[in-house]
């Protein structure tokens, strides 16, 4: 696979990664609702059916069968990449993820494995209803046996998809719908697949460590920029891989930033993965003062944009939270 | 004439909704039922006040046919505090139980088991209500719909499963998603009456569902009705429909219930002015409702955390 630089938006990056793995891994299959002939409801899988023929196909609206068949085909040596059109639709078929996929390797002592990838997208966009806007990563992070990633940039979207397909365990890659049609950026394709895991230091600073993932990364960086303009520099660590999670890097950074830690995510605060991150840092004994946990307060997601924007953390709320944290010495 | 009037109210509402999406007043995903108006108009005619109705995201027509006033319905789509759910539901997940409309659902097939429960409750609360659940052809492939149909059949509950077959499940034709496209064979195999009828004829819909409802009310158990129909617009507002041919759309426009009712009324000698007045009146009523709703205040962001718990 020669290295190449291409200019794509986020959805183009996912498309390029899928194109690559379909070409380089003959065991791959790509299927889901509307993914083949129509090219996906967001156009992410456009052109792949034309290029790869019957390894790319449309399915009935049957999420249990989509996920269950991926488990079975993976057990027999295929590498299915399946799409759950909205993360909310996972919920009609959770059995296949949590009781089935997550158990295959463990219960068979590794004699059976289920290496497949679920592509899905989540998050709120204006006017999405309560059943089309949830952020569900914590459900899957509560389930050992599943790998979970949530990229926020075209380069990571590309690299993570390639790594996920080469991973020997079930991997869920959550996109955020609002990122699909962002700015085109240059990305490097064709590099050897990286091992899964790791984090990215998006900004350095001494005042506090902010950990975030997914689309929130962009809001956190905006908030960090504004704080920097006022003379407060926070370190921003993006953790596009949530399982495996780069706990060590986070702990080291918190140590360097006076024990101050904030976690920002779009998911509900209660029992969100932010709580886990804070607990791990607390257990490491490096936390000082009161950590900040910024997410959606415990409510359902209303359709009216005026209501939803009162719930989802925006730059202002993030700045407020961080300002309190850095003042708290 | 009454059916044409009822169908025009729905179509005018949907067309206004489409326009308000275009101006950005309505945000988010909106699924119109343009072309499918005969089903709700025919079916709701046989429902009683205590009966329950569960629709999908393509449910504006069902809400209207059930009697929900247009202004709070439009206000809901516009995210106003005066909407039927104060903006929480939106286009794809709204409800108006005070009018016997127990809600849309944005999860394909999810309404079917809930409707079974509504009928179950009626067995104990003395209403013996009928529950009607509406879903598309694509929803036939959901486990929840199969489970619901069998549960209702096994327990002989008065549930009417209404499948609006518009031949498309989002961007994929139903024929590509089934091994046999005789959908009614499935409920029939589960032990219930199952028919496929012309879903563009409101009177036929009324009579068919009326008979099955009467049977269900007297212990006859559930039934399944497939309404053969078509959507004249995209799956959602903004869907460019590249997957459909011009010929198909032209044929659908021939079949659609309003054009057809107009042809029939004209053939029966009804004056053209009388027929055009129906459209005009419907558009005026919708326009008034929309203007009133547009003048209403947006949902109050301070209330965003209310109603999570009792
Ligand atoms: C469980 C679930 N899977 C997928 C979707 C995405 N989706 C929404 S509508 C739709 C097509 C449904 O087609 P059909 O049942 O025929 O109804 P129609 O939209 O034609 O009225 C799909 C796949 C969903 N909302 N819920």
UniProtKB/TrEMBL annotation, chain A:
SUPFAM superfamilies: Thiamin diphosphate-binding fold (THDP-binding), TK C-terminal domain-like. Gene3D superfamilies: 3.40.50.920, 3.40.50.970. InterPro entries: THDP-binding, Transketo_C/PFOR_II, Transketolase-like_Pyr-bd, Transketolase_C. Keywords: Oxidoreductase, Thiamine pyrophosphate. CDD domains: TPP_PYR_E1-PDHc-beta_like. Pfam families: Transket_pyr, Transketolase_C. Residues 8-182 form the Transketolase-like pyrimidine-binding domain. Its cofactor is thiamine diphosphate. This is Alpha-ketoacid dehydrogenase subunit beta. It comes from Streptomyces nigrescens.
UniProtKB/TrEMBL annotation, chain B:
This is Thiamine pyrophosphate-dependent dehydrogenase E1 component subunit alpha. The keyword Nucleus does not apply. PANTHER family: PYRUVATE DEHYDROGENASE E1 COMPONENT SUBUNIT ALPHA, PYRUVATE DEHYDROGENASE E1 COMPONENT, ALPHA SUBUNIT BACTERIAL AND ORGANELLAR. Residues 6-297 form the Dehydrogenase E1 component domain. Keywords: Oxidoreductase, Thiamine pyrophosphate. Its cofactor is thiamine diphosphate. It comes from Streptomyces nigrescens. The keyword Oxidoreductase applies.
